[in-house]
Design a protein that fits this description.
The protein is mostly helical. It is built from 14 helices and no strands.
Length: 300
């Protein structure tokens, strides 16, 4: 593996750093990705670390003006990395290598950048269509990149597989949005992903939802988000049977973790806003990871 202008030692360090980012910041993905064969594991670690860097730029800047300057620099550096011209620091050597190694279509990565830009200039969503488009930019694209990187079984339709991959990624993102209604609204850069149209259908204001003032209406809204996640998941059924069998346990593990979060919200919709954040216990994630490992042994 190599990147023009980057020494092997720098690339190895960058790849290792990306692994640390995934292990510490992407707990739901890590339990599946960690059992992936190489080089696909390192490819996806690098893409995640790149996305995380962009997300942190958007979330952690002291002002919108600073965020815009830093994001523009990030987007420009990304374009250089697409062309194989990487900075010799941070995630950049690994990211440039990953894009070239897996032949990731640049259009999908640019769509990921569009999702980050939406967060940078965020205004509360108005329509369901905005929500669906956002879920593609930051979720569907992840499904596309993963499936492209993993590859397909012989005889599988690439177009059908990518449609299912987009849907699986959107399902994961919809679960994130349902889980983090309160977290997103109270972040340093507040976000309102629940669209005004959905609030109107529930007869709620955004403030009433965040205060959980009308529990019946609030629960109805959370269940509508759950239904959207279920709709996307249903559209993705069969993806496991289409990808390279070495990666079926990887996708299954990630899906079980996300479905576990959704199960918590089904049982306790209020946890989208009040009470402890919906999550899957670490011991259960460990069991999911162990199951993925044993399944991996079966396909080697």
């Amino acid at each position: 593996m190599s990147v023009p202008g980057v020494m092997q030692k720098e690339l190895a360090t960058s790849l290792a750093d990306c692994g640390v980012v995934v292990r510490t910041q992407a707990r739901n993905f890590w339990w599946g990705l960690r059992v992936s064969p190489q080089p696909q594991r390192s490819v996806l670690y690098a893409v995640y670390a790149w996305m995380r860097l962009g997300d942190d730029i958007v979330d952690e800047a002291k002002s919108r003006e600073q965020a815009r300057r830093d994001f523009d620099a990030f987007a420009a550096a990304s374009e250089r990395a697409f062309a194989g011209d990487a900075q010799a620091e941070g995630c950049w050597p690994a990211f440039a290598w990953a894009v070239a190694e897996a032949g990731v279509p640049h259009a999908w990565l640019r769509d990921m950048l569009k999702g980050l830009a939406w967060d940078l200039d965020h205004e509360p969503f108005v329509s369901d269509e905005q929500l669906a488009r956002y879920c593609y930019f930051v979720g569907g694209t992840v499904g596309l990149v993963c499936t492209h990187t993993w590859g397909l079984r012989a005889g599988m339709s690439r177009d059908v597989a990518l449609e299912k991959a987009d849907a699986r990624g959107r399902s994961f993102q919809m679960i994130n949005i349902a889980r983090d209604i309160a977290t997103d609204a109270t972040a340093s850069s507040p976000r309102g992903y629940v669209p005004e149209a959905m609030l109107a259908r529930a007869g709620l204001s955004r403030e009433a939802l965040l205060a959980w003032r009308e529990p019946v209406a609030c629960e109805r809204l959370v269940r509508e988000l759950i239904a959207k996640a279920d709709m996307y998941h249903a559209a993705s059924v069969g993806l496991e049977a289409m990808i390279d069998p070495r990666f079926t346990p990887v996708l299954a593990a990630m899906t079980r973790v996300y479905q576990g979060v959704l199960d918590v919200l089904r049982a306790e919709p209020a946890r989208a806003v009040v009470g402890p954040r919906a999550r899957v216990a670490n011991w259960r994630k460990a069991m999911i990871g162990l199951r993925a490992v044993t399944q991996q042994w079966g396909v080697r």
